[in-house]
Automatic annotation (TrEMBL):
<keyword id="KW-0547">Nucleotide-binding</keyword>
<keyword id="KW-0436">Ligase</keyword>
<feature type="binding site">
    <location>
        <begin position="29"/>
        <end position="35"/>
    </location>
    <ligand>
        <name>ATP</name>
    </ligand>
</feature>
<comment type="function">
    <text>Catalyzes the synthesis of GMP from XMP.</text>
</comment>
<keyword id="KW-0315">Glutamine amidotransferase</keyword>
<comment type="pathway">
    <text>Purine metabolism; GMP biosynthesis; GMP from XMP (L-Gln route): step 1/1.</text>
</comment>
<keyword id="KW-0658">Purine biosynthesis</keyword>
<feature type="domain" description="GMPS ATP-PPase">
    <location>
        <begin position="2"/>
        <end position="194"/>
    </location>
</feature>
<keyword id="KW-0332">GMP biosynthesis</keyword>
<comment type="subunit">
    <text>Homodimer.</text>
</comment>
<keyword id="KW-0067">ATP-binding</keyword>
<protein>
    <recommendedName>
        <fullName>GMP synthase [glutamine-hydrolyzing]</fullName>
        <ecNumber>6.3.5.2</ecNumber>
    </recommendedName>
</protein>
Amino acid sequence: DWTMAEFKAAKINEIREQVGDGKVICGLSGGVDSAVAAVLIHEAIGEQLTCVFVDHGLMRQGEADQVVSLFKGHYNIPLVHLDVETLFLNGLKGETDPEKKRKFIGKTFIDVFEIEAKKVGGADFLAQGTLYPDVIESVSFTGGPSVTIKSHHNVGGLPERMNMKLVEPLRELFKDEVRALGRELGLPEIFVGRHPFPGPGLAIRIPGEVTKERCDILRKADAIYLEEIRNAGLYDAIWQAFAVLLPVKTVGVMGDGRTYDSVCGLRAVTSTDGMTADVYPFDASFLTRVATRIVNEVKGINRVVYDYTSKPPGTIEWE
Ligand code: XMP
């Protein structure tokens, strides 16, 4: 029976053996997995690791700042922070197809990452926070024979193109074990306990065209929702909770005026690995409070709905 301390020590040895005196590059997404992988690898090989944060502007409110302060402030791990919001938003202009949005983001991420990897002087290894469910889900999914439900966002293809080998120290772990390892490595609770966030970010929570304005609207609604969830003490009981901004406008009334604004959807699920999920059963009074706050405080939204779909048949994200 392994303790996390033993697992950590064994992995550190394994990483040192695999990497030797080679150079490793690691992409940070803002999520728990890549952060834990990076901190673990940094403990193993120190300065041989370069972390790159491709900031596509599709993060949640405050998230990019948290990544930067965790790495530069808390750990003093060197971090290349690339602010490439304009590149991503320009490329997403006019695109409404979910798979094309995912593919564009994945491809652009790799392009940006490759340029940085070359600047480092050519890394020998690419580190990734791949988890056990990621390994499984890319093989088979909801029982269907190799049907692609969604193109997952990762840096696949890059290792061959740049002749890099993969370092994936979390491959045997489930999410709760990654969190335990993160605590063992001293990551702050706000980071370790954070809900999973998909690589393509808010782009797949904005069905239809993604614009800076719609990202900003969604960030505000999402932050209110999460703040209420934290205040109610429910955050840790939920696997993922987030808002989506729908490409639908409806009529409302505010004061004595007519409004014609977007609909916001709220999603919250429980799960152990993201492969199946159940809807989180909030009290009606909680949802009413959140809906009232969002409509009152977020310009551009005048109606809020709750998503009651389990996975399967729904997926967790809307695209
Ligand atoms: P779905 O929406 O397929 O998502 O039920 C299952 C879990 O995976 C996350 N997700 C992603 N994570 N890259 C990621 O790293 C992606 O492209 C991606 N798409 C979905 C999702 O948030 C959920 O936790």
